[in-house]
Amino acid sequence: MPGDTTGASRLDQALAGRGLARSRTHAARLIELGAVTVNGAVATKPSLRVTEGDTIEVRAEHPEHRYVSRAALKLVAALDEFGIDPRGRASLDVGASTGGFTQVLLERGARHVIALDVGHGQLAEPLAGHPDLTLLEGVNARDLTRDGLDGMLRGSGSESQEAEADDGAGPRTPRAGELDLVVADLSFISLRHVLGPLRRTAGEDADFVVLIKPQFEVGRQGVRDGIVADQRLVGGAVSGVVQQAFEANLGTLGIMASPIAGTHGNREFLAHFAARGEHPTQWTDRIREVTGDTTRGEPT
């Protein structure tokens, strides 16, 4: 561990300053996970004082370091649990943000990913300019239509990609109706508002993998200090999304708890929907199991 601390700085600050972490927050997570060593010893405190002479290393194989956001690990778990292989599939990432979900899809061989977000300038640098990625910013998912998405793709520069594809120089950006895998990680909006538009935009046989965040489903009255503590509300949030999916002609094929907690420690869940999925009543027991809501009856 460090000796002379003259001119020293905090370890989390040093990690970010040396480019070993994207931010001090990211650095703190890496330290918490035991992924950081200082002079060969595992560091446990972000506040540890280090100097320029200290050797700081991050285990490159650690998943938290590998992806542009920890949200990626949620999608990794869901794809594995639900048995979904993105390889060769035309994909849509809704609520892309820094690109954690997008990165997983590209890494697993998606033919092309359309990354869509209502914000601007959030996509992480390692993904910028990827040849199999089209970024659409400033787009509200609740307003999506098939024609509208195709129009945005034409205006995003995808026309040149299509021309190159016609010349045999590369793959063509998929049109909305060709999308056969949709993933979503949305904040500050209920999934109930976007499942219908997404269903009508993507291909008829598309698989949907969505992150359910109860804190954005139960309304302000159900959240205290940023957390949904009442398990009945958590169960109701998941049931409500499952029911709304069914009303959008998407049955359920899988539900699981996220392996990683959300903001403020909120429990989150992932669901697999598709037109071939089952009626919500078939998933009542599973929702009880994953949410801990033992009071819940049939989804409403």
Automatic annotation (TrEMBL):
Cited SUPFAM superfamilies: Alpha-L RNA-binding motif, S-adenosyl-L-methionine-dependent methyltransferases
Region Disordered: start-end pairs: 147-174
A GO BP entry: methylation
Molecular-function GO term, any one: methyltransferase activity
PANTHER family: BACTERIAL HEMOLYSIN-LIKE PROTEIN
Similarity comment text for this entry: Belongs to the TlyA family.
Protein name: TlyA family RNA methyltransferase
Organism encoding this protein: Pseudoclavibacter endophyticus
